[in-house]
Specification:
Elements (H helix, E strand, L loop, with lengths): L1 H13 L15 H24 L3 H4 L6 H9 L4 H27 L7 H18 L3 H20 L7 H22 L5 H28 L3 H23 L1 H8 L4 H8 L11 H24 L4 H29 L6 H36 L5 H24 L16 H5 L3 H22 L1 H6 L4 H9 L5 H29 L3 H18 L6 H20 L6 H25 L5 H30 E5 L2 E4 L12 H21 L13 H24 L3 H19 L3 H7 L6 H45 L4 H4 L6 H39 L7
């Protein structure tokens, strides 16, 4: 038995699977995952180096052989899916480019002819820039073009298959990286998602437990201590969730369902969800748990709260215990039969039913006490606690529903693009392609113009620096340039140490590079060091192996200084070209992303109004009546947009980091990253409120919010850079419009505040009328059971709670909209007026 456990532990460690189900958590720590990646990187380098220098390839492509280990370390990524995706993107661009350039060379175009070569280079660069949707996928094809054209213009004798030789060495390096990723500590994106989901579920369970404990506390200070722990866990959960959408994209390059069946064989009879369903589950649970947290933060620990918690304490704790057992069995590889697990599910269902009955009885007794004592029930107390219990019920139902293994799978139908949409190119892609073309044209003069070639020793490092420092935005490009310069200095330092230690000997050089690659392979996994570490890895490969591969080896010191000098020149040129040639500022993309988020909020509010109108049977001055039977027919309005919100928020967080290195003073007066960070948190608050309203499934307010979201969205459009507005909208903004919009804001926020007071007063009036009718009924000799027929009907009781939750969520939605509008107003005022001048 001991050997079986050891074998299982080794298997999970080797395949990077199920980190949470281990008695030795340090073995499955982030440290060891990074060590595994660095080992993969070193083995890929050694295998590709052996193929390059220990096989006949060394004689076939003597001057290009160093590109094989270079390509292998460039392509290999954290997961199998990401590596295969990178390899696929590069090969789909390299193949047509290689065929085209082979034809060009065959017919003699560009051979020792600067003008012809320049024209062809520009054509190929435009194609690569247009096809490559992201800067990362454009870099390697551009470098291959740089090497090719630098060779055909300057070298006296050129093989007829030069481009295919270049393609061959890149393809070999790419294949080596894919094979090593599949064989050595294979980290599948599918398994990474499974691990993340299990980790998130366990931590959400812990958050749920702490929030319930804080809710049951009698003292608000003690409750806040627990909520502080909840906030810490929330940050950990959010970080784990932030990359789920990206992981799902790259998991498409893996046989995900096959991997799930292989590794989840023991759990298949318990839970069998696709990766998308798992992501939807943890996202929904996160929003509901976060809603519970926000309610407890605002809870009044008064007499109403004390009486309620005393009555439901036992039932609520029992539900939490049953829920914890379910989560533990879902996330861990425990030996449990389907019958035993379904027994636990049955316990959870019964605990859920018991809590519902206890809460219903408590509410009824509270109403009787209010009548007898002559006190009143505060609307905010009733609504807040109904909101909290609704989240509890919804979480329990979610866990029960996903464990029903015999349920039918719903296949999501994705909208396919029409032929017209596929054929009409996007203007932004054309601008990126033109920018890439111009940058490549400027860089090519250093390898094609004879005088500049002589001055800069072929100028190839300048050209390559321009290829490798391109970014999707100005801020992204500047960040890449800074990392490249620092990485080049580090790599050049180790190159010189390597040369002093072993000289021009190939295999001792490999021995010196291995510890360097091992160390920076570990550093490469750190979020802010990814590109710096990558440059530090391939720089000594280029310098030491590339220098030896030349026909006449250049002295090491001269070669290192030449690379540093030309990189500095290339980066300096890249800074200028990035700013003046069709610049795409991260500031503009951030504002555009916020516009899309606010428009999505507006669409969700419109959907709420349509659902509200669908459920209403009658509306008159005495009350509003709902058709409860229609509740089951209502479809979710938020499920399709929930994942988009998370993508928006993740992109906004990245954009704020890139804006920090952009010259924002050219466009706006003050940029406050703190205000934008606050804005993101407020967007997340609105997101969770909309999710709660959607889960409840049950109009003046809608019109007000629509108008406000439209207005706030226009703020970010108005404050984008002149360049962005000129090329996207064809107009400049009007400064006079700023002052007009600023004056409107105060009156709009005042209207929303009045709406909050109106909603609170309306619900309080409803509660008071309910008490009055109850007293009248008792005076007339009626019985409470006749007045409250829902007291013995669980379904109707849940619907009443859902309606109360909608009311509470609506008030919270307006309050969150006020906070959001205030933050947007502050941002707009900081950026467009001279009222606040920093020292």
């Amino acid at each position: 038995m001991g050997w079986l456990r050891v074998f299982a532990l080794v298997r999970r460690f080797y395949f990077n699977y199920n980190y949470v189900d281990s008695n030795l958590p340090y073995i499955h720590s982030l440290f060891f995952r990074r060590v595994q990646f660095s080992i993969r990187l070193v083995i890929a380098f050694l295998v590709s180096g052996f193929l390059a220098y220990g096989t006949p390839l060394k004689n076939q492509v003597s001057q290009l052989v160093f590109l094989i280990p270079l390509a292998s370390v460039l392509v290999i990524q954290d997961t199998v899916g990401l590596t295969v995706a990178a390899a696929f993107q590069m090969l789909t661009t390299l193949v047509p480019v290689s065929i085209f350039l082979f034809i060009v060379q065959k017919i003699g175009l560009g051979y020792h002819d600067y003008v012809a070569a320049e024209i062809i280079l520009l054509i190929v660069s435009f194609f690569i820039g247009f096809v490559g949707s992201q800067a990362q996928s454009r870099k390697i094809p551009l470098v291959m073009c740089a090497v090719f054209f630098a060779t055909i213009v300057n070298q006296p004798i050129i093989p007829s298959t030069l481009i295919f030789q270049i393609f061959e060495v890149f393809a070999i390096g790419i294949c080596v990286s894919v094979l090593i990723t599949l064989i050595i500590f294979p980290a599948f994106a599918t398994m990474d998602i499974e691990n993340r989901v299990n980790y998130i579920l366990l931590n959400l369970g812990e958050m749920h437990r702490l929030i319930v404990q804080s809710f049951l506390h009698q003292d608000q200070i003690d409750a806040q201590v627990l909520l502080t722990q909840v906030s810490t866990i929330e940050q950990m959960v959010f970080e784990a969730m932030s990359s789920l959408q990206t992981k799902l994209v790259f998991a498409r390059f893996e046989p995900s369902r096959l991997l799930q069946r292989i590794f989840n064989l023991k759990r298949k009879n318990i839970i069998d969800l696709t990766l998308s369903e798992q992501e939807n589950l943890v996202t929904s649970l996160f929003l509901h748990v976060r809603s519970m947290q926000s309610m407890v933060k605002q809870c009044h620990f008064n007499e109403y709260h004390t009486d309620l918690t005393r009555d439901i304490r036992e039932s609520l704790l029992n539900l939490c215990s049953c829920q914890s057992i379910i989560i533990n069995n879902i996330t861990k590889h425990t030996l449990i039969t389907k019958g035993e697990f379904m027994h636990y599910v049955s316990d959870l269902y019964q605990a859920h039913q018991k809590l519902s009955k206890t809460y219903r009885d408590t509410g009824f007794h509270r109403l009787e006490y209010a009548v007898i004592s002559g006190t009143t029930i505060k609307s905010e107390d009733y609504l807040g606690h109904s909101f909290f219990l609704f989240q509890i019920h919804t979480i329990a139902k979610l866990l029960i529903s996903v464990t029903a293994t015999d349920k039918k799978k719903v296949v999501e139908k994705k909208r396919k693009k029409s032929l017209k949409e596929r054929l009409i190119p996007k203007w932004s892609r054309i601008l990126v392609a033109l920018k890439t073309t111009i940058i490549m044209g400027v860089g090519s003069i250093f390898v094609m113009v004879p005088s500049l070639v002589t001055t800069f020793e072929n100028g190839q490092w300048i050209f390559i620096a321009l290829c490798m420092t391109q970014g999707d935005t100005v801020g992204g490009a500047f960040t890449t340039m800074r990392m490249r310069l620092f990485g080049t200095l580090l790599g050049a330092m180790w190159s010189y140490i390597t040369y002093l230690a072993v000289g021009d000997q190939i295999y001792p050089t490999f021995g010196m590079l291995v510890p360097w690659i091992l160390f920076f392979g570990y550093i490469r996994s750190l979020p802010n060091w990814t590109y710096t570490a990558l440059v530090a890895i391939f720089t000594p490969i280029l310098i030491n192996l590339g220098r030896i591969a030349g026909p006449i080896p250049v002295p090491e010191g001269d070669f290192i200084l030449l690379r540093i000098e030309e990189n500095v020149i290339g980066i300096g040129l890249a800074i200028v070209l990035t700013l003046i040639i069709f610049p795409i500022f991260a500031l503009d993309l951030l504002k555009e992303n916020i516009q899309n988020t606010l428009e999505a909020f507006r669409d969700s509010v419109n959907s709420i109004r349509s659902i509200y109108n669908k459920l209403i049977l009658d509306k008159n001055p005495t009350g509003i009546y709902f058709d409860i039977e229609k509740n089951k027919e209502v479809e979710s309005f938020f499920a399709a947009q929930r994942n988009n919100f998370y993508q928006f928020i993740t992109t906004q967080r990245t954009g704020i980091q890139h804006i920090a290195v952009e010259p924002t003073f050219l466009w706006i007066n003050n940029f406050s990253s703190n205000h934008y960070t606050t804005l993101i948190e407020q967007e997340l608050d609105i997101c969770q409120i909309l999710h709660t309203i959607d889960a409840a499934e049950l109009s003046t307010l809608s019109s007000q919010l629509n108008g406000r979201f439209d207005m706030w969205s226009s703020y970010f459009k108005l404050s984008q850079t002149r360049y962005h507005r000129l090329f996207n909208d064809g107009i400049f903004y009007n400064k006079e419009l700023f002052e007009i919009e600023l004056l409107k804001q105060d009156s709009y926020l005042a209207e929303l505040r009045q709406t909050v007071h109106r909603l609170e007063n309306e619900h309080q009036d409803g509660v008071d009328q309910l008490l009055k009718r109850f007293i009248d009924l008792l005076i007339q000799g009626g019985t409470p059971s006749n007045f409250f027929p829902y007291k013995k009907n669980d379904q109707n009781d849940l619907i009443i709670i859902a309606i109360s939750t909608m009311c509470f969520s609506t008030i919270k939605l307006v309050k969150s909209a006020i906070d959001l509008g205030t933050t947007i107003h502050n941002i707009f005022e900081l950026e467009t007026t001279h009222r606040y001048i920093p020292y």
